[in-house]
Amino acid sequence: MLAAGALSACVVVPVDPRTGQPYPAASREGGSVTVVTPPPPPAAPQPTLLNVRLYPANAQANAGGMLVATVLDVHTGRGTFSVGYLGDTLQGEATRVGGARRGIANAWGPRGISVQCEYQISAPGQGTGSCLFSDGARYQMHF
Predict the structure, then answer these.
(1) Which contacts of 110-115 are long-range, i.e. CB under 8 A and separated by 24 or more positions?
(2) What is the dihedral of CA 133, 54, 83, 44, to 10 degrees?
(3) pTM of the shown model
(4) What is the reported pLDDT for 6?
């Protein structure tokens, strides 16, 4: 009975979890009540289109000249990879590996030429690497 008597003067006060402060007491004279709604969840990141430049690194690559490739990054660790080479469009994918700082990209064209690239990411949307085409052409990659 002593415990019940000691606790009879206690009042439970709701606390705002964002501020740690008690909610204002509602007045008994018909005061208003403030309803706090949480903010909406952040939107999913939109795909990012990266323009990648490939610079010739050997005599075979000089025939193709400087190339421009594109990577559509959908922020899942994978994306699509496309590059034009000697009148052919090679299509494939790019995938980040090894803690998301390193990646590989592969593409293939209808004439049977393929390319394999490896790259290092230095900052969001930036990096360097190298590509080897199935005909022996070597390129340095910058994005």
Answers:
(1) 113/85, 113/86, 113/88, 114/90, 115/83, 115/85, 115/90
(2) 120
(3) 0.69
(4) 53
